[in-house]
Amino acid sequence: MLPTALLVLCALLPWATPAMRADRLAWLRRDTVDMFYHGWNNYMEHAFPEDELRPLTCTPLSRNRHDPSEIGLNDALGNYSLTLIDSLSTLAILAGGPEEESHTGPQALSDFQRGVAEFVRHYGDGRQGPSGQGIRAFGFDLDSKVQVFETVIRGVGGLLSAHLFAIGELPINGYDPNPVELLNPDNPLELSPIRWPNGFQYDGQLLRLALDLGQRLLPAFYTPTGIPYPRVNLRHGIPFYTNSPLHGALTEPGERHMDGLGRREITETCSAGAGSLTLEFTVLSRLTGDTRFEQAAKRAFWEVWGRKSQIGLIGNGIDAESGAWIGPHSGIGAGMDSFFEYALKSHILLSGHDMPNVSSTHGQGKPGWLDPNSLHPPLPHELQTSDAFLETWHQAHDSVKRYIYTDRSAYPYYSNNHRNTGQPYTMWIDSLGAFYPGLLAMAGEVDEAIEANLVYTALWTRYSALPERWSFRGNDVDSGIGWWPGRPEFIESTYYIYRATKDPWYLYVGEMVLRDIKWRCYAPCGWAGLQDVRSGEKQDRMESFFLGETTKYMYLLFDPGHQLNKLDAPFVFSTEGHPLIIPKKRHGTSSRARAQAANKSVTRYTYFDETYTNSCPLPVTPDTLTGSATAARPDLFGVSRFTGLYNTPNPHGPLEAIQVQDKKKGRVTKYRPLSNHTLFPWTLPPQLLPPDGTCAAPPYRVTSWIEFPASDAINSVISKFSTSLVWLDHRGPTVKNLEGLRLKLEKETGELVDGEEFWSITRVGLTELGRHENVFFYAEHVGHLADEAFTAIRDTGTVEIEFIIERLTEEEGKDEDDDSEELHVQADDTAVGSQNASTSSVPQSTQAMTTQSLLKSLLRAVSSVFEPAQTSLPGALHLDGDGPLAYSRTAHVAIGPGAFPVPPVVDTPLVDGPSFNARDPTSNYPWKNIYLAGYACDEPLPDTAPRNHQIILMRRGGCSFSKKLDNIPSFSPSPSSLQLVIVVNEGRSPEEEDVRPKLETEQLTPSGMRRPHGIPMVLVNGAPGDYELLSRAAGVGMRRRYSVRSQGIPIDNAIVL
Question: What is the tally of helices (H) and strands (E) in the chain?
Answer without folding.
Answer: 29, 40
